[in-house]
Write a structure and sequence with these properties.
The structure holds 2 protein chains of 2 kinds.
Chain A lengths: L10 H12 L5 H22 L16 H8 L3 H35 L6 H9 L6 H14 L6 H25 L4 H8 L4 H30 L2 H6 L7 H10 L4 H30 L1
Helix pairs in contact in A: 2-12, 3-4, 3-12, 4-7, 4-9, 4-11, 7-9, 8-9, 9-12
Chain B lengths: L3 E12 L6 E12 L3 E5 L6 H9 L6 E6 L2 E2 L10 E4 L11 H11 L4 H14 L15 H13 L5 E5 L7 H18 L2 E6 L2 H7 L2 E6 L2 E6 L1 H6 L4 H6 L4 E9 L4 E6 L2 E7 L8 E7 L5 E4 L8 E10 L3 E7 L5 E7 L13 E5 L6 E2 L3
Parallel strand pairs in B: 3-8, 3-9, 6-7, 7-8
Antiparallel strand pairs in B: 1-2, 1-4, 4-5, 9-10, 11-12, 11-14, 12-13, 14-20, 15-19, 16-17, 16-19, 17-18
Helix pairs in contact in B: 2-3, 2-4, 3-4
The chains are: A mainly alpha, B alpha+beta.
């Protein structure tokens, strides 16, 4: 054992100690590396080959931006542009609506008084996370047919709002649980009405949770394929269904370029969401 | 006559539960005077915090009323009551600056902008933190946060200020300094303070009057001196300071007087509330600092014989437990002096004496 260094107090030390202990398990490093490899190697290959000058998806033919050019200006550019606009509109609206609903649900569940069936309600809010997506997709499709609802952007939007709620709910309710009700009491004590207490105290404190709930819902909606594919009408495409449609006719490197672009957007948004919640915790 | 600020009228609080509802307050009644530093003192679970939260409006009342300068405020929402609270965990709004925290109540009361600025600045000056207005609460030390919480609650000039164990999160030195500061701020502002604590020393040092509570009931109300010198019962005697409770035998003497003996030693004559019919056992209290120890060799009249069980040297004082022949023990506290006349060792035989003026009668 080397001589003990002066120990810094706090979280950093705790984590450092925990990390040190982890390394003691035999094979820990190998299993970790294997997991990361399986997770990220395909993504990295797609990113690299999106810059391939060759038509082939397996042989490297030098660096080129031609596939990105094709995405934006090629024959399929119009199709992908339309699909992207659909995806963004749906994702933004679904994220806004589901975040509002999830915020209201979190307020009722965390701050509301105990009511009959509270734990059942909690289960129902989170159930979509556990139901196989294909089941939800089929059921939603049948539901829309039975009530005679026209399939198109609106049907996709409605379905997305519904399955985004639990994803928005989780970070919002986690944040709300971390806010002591003493702040609201202090607000009421200092002559704020219940409405002012919410607007001036509780809401500003909830903002980091609401923002990360919004971003999570946005990504989940942007990314969805199965449900969208079932409930979209003929001729209406979102980006994932358009990519799937293109891949069916053979994988061309322009798909890799689109995938890389989507991945970049996702990484940026998830990082923002993480940073926001970290700033929220520091306050 | 001093005006009554708060009248607590038969307040009872029951937390409902299917099998065993909790009776946190069992119908307490007393008044708190205008411009008074009043303390609710008791161990945790005695109902003191519940009572404070009832006055603030955070808990509804099961039975009874709370009157503020004659007006029944029992059914008003917290934001409709002209009382403010200093919370135990300060509860400063983390997203607002110190200035905005202090100005919060004034803004809700729709004071005009000049008034808010002036009053908030005056409050920050009162707590000597005028330069800290732009800071966020997370940038302040515990003691500074405590003072901001106080300024925030005082800014709207409440009719009564409620303080819920505000010093318990501070370290000892800071706590002692804050005691002085709180007391002087109370005198300066002339606002009635209702202070909740479980720390008897804090209560004695700061209060004009103390209500000692336990089990959802008020045990005794009085000035610190009255409560320490004449505790009403066992609970108060034991909770405030340290007490020796002795089971003495009382024999009737002239009038309502009775002669007391303990371990067959005559310990004095006291006046009882009513005349004794015959010999009875009664409990009396003697404070440890009122007991005198002398070596067994000394000639002492009416001394109880004992043996030193342990001795602790406490700097200003020395404290000793003395074993008495009837299996009981007694606590003695002696002030240390320059001559070190209080040097007793474990196992020494000693004589225990106290003046009859030191004897206090306790209700059962």
């Amino acid at each position: 054992m080397p001589a003990a260094k002066p120990i810094q107090r706090g979280v950093v030390t705790d984590m450092a100690v925990a990390n040190k202990k982890m390394k003691w398990y035999p094979g820990f490093r190998e299993i970790t590396l294997a997991c990361f490899f399986i997770l990220y190697a395909p993504l990295i290959i797609v990113m690299i080959y999106s810059f391939n000058a060759s038509q082939s998806i397996t042989i490297w033919g030098g660096f080129s931006l031609q596939w990105y050019e094709e995405v934006f200006f090629g024959i399929e550019a119009e199709k992908f542009k339309k699909a992207t606009i659909n995806s963004l509109i749906i994702a933004i609206m679904a994220a806004v609506v589901s975040t509002v609903i999830a915020t209201a649900a979190a307020l009722a569940m965390v701050r509301g008084k105990a009511f009959k069936g509270k734990s059942l309600t909690f289960g129902l809010i989170n159930l979509p996370l556990m139901v196989p997506e294909i089941v939800t997709a089929v059921a939603t499709l049948i539901f829309f047919s039975v009530i005679g609802f026209d399939r198109g952007v609106l049907s996709i939007l409605l379905a997305h709002i519904v399955f985004c709620i639990p994803f928005a709910y989780l970070p919002i309710s986690a944040r709300l649980q971390g806010i002591s009700s003493i702040y609201e009491q202090a607000g009421r004590d200092l002559y704020a009405t219940p409405g002012q207490t919410f607007l001036l105290i509780l809401f500003p404190l909830m903002v980091p949770g609401i923002l990360s709930g919004f971003l999570l819902a946005f990504i989940i909606s942007l990314d969805d394929f199965i449900i969208t594919n079932f409930v979209k009408g003929a001729g209406v495409e979102t980006l994932p269904t358009a990519i799937f449609g293109a891949v069916k006719q053979g994988i061309k490197p322009n798909i890799m370029a689109i995938s890389t672009l989507m991945l970049t957007v996702s990484i940026v948004l998830v990082s923002i969401s993480y940073l926001i919640s970290r700033i929220g915790r520091q306050n | 006559m001093t005006k009554t600020a708060l009248f607590i009228d038969g307040v009872a609080k029951v937390y409902p539960h299917r099998t065993n509802p909790v009776r946190a307050l069992k119908g307490v009644s007393f008044d708190i005077l205008d411009n008074e530093f009043f303390t609710l003192l008791g161990p945790s679970g005695c109902g003191k915090t519940t009572l404070l939260r009832i006055i603030a409006g955070f808990e509804d009342i099961t039975e009874g009323h709370v009157l503020l300068y004659g007006d029944d405020i029992s059914s008003l929402a917290p934001n409709q009551r002209p009382v403010n609270t200093v919370f135990q965990q300060y509860a400063l709004f983390p997203h607002l600056t110190v200035f905005e925290n202090v100005a919060f109540g004034l803004r809700r009361l729709n004071r005009d902008a000049d008034d808010i600025k002036q009053r908030t600045t005056a409050m920050l000056e009162l707590i000597r933190m005028a330069e800290y207005g732009d800071r966020k609460p997370s940038e302040l030390s515990g003691g500074q946060q405590q003072r901001v919480a106080l300024a925030r609650a005082l800014a709207p000039s409440p009719k009564v200020l409620l303080l819920d164990e505000p010093l318990s999160a501070l370290d000892l030195k800071l706590r002692q300094a804050m005691r002085e500061e709180l007391k002087s701020i109370q005198k300066q502002t002339g606002i009635t303070f209702v202070f909740v604590t479980h720390d008897q020393e804090e209560a004695l040092a700061m209060s004009d009057r103390i209500a000692v509570m336990s089990n959802g009931e008020v045990q005794q109300i009085g000035s610190p001196r009255e409560i320490y010198n004449n505790p009403a019962n066992h609970f108060v005697a034991n909770f405030i300071g340290e007490a020796n409770i002795l089971e003495a035998t009382a024999t009737p003497a002239a009038g309502k007087k009775a002669k007391l003996t303990f371990n067959n030693i005559d310990i004095g004559t006291v006046e009882l509330p009513q005349k004794l019919d015959g010999e009875t056992n009664i409990s009396v209290m003697v404070r440890p600092e009122h007991i005198h120890l002398s070596p067994a060799s000394a000639k002492t009249k009416n001394a109880i014989k004992g043996r030193v069980k342990d001795v602790s040297y406490l700097g200003t004082d020395t404290q000793a437990h003395i074993d008495l022949p009837n299996q009981k023990e007694i606590l003695v506290r002696m002030q240390n002096n320059a001559l070190e006349t209080n040097s007793f060792d474990v196992g020494d035989d000693v004589h225990v004496t106290f003046s009859e003026n030191a004897i206090r009668l306790l209700e059962d």
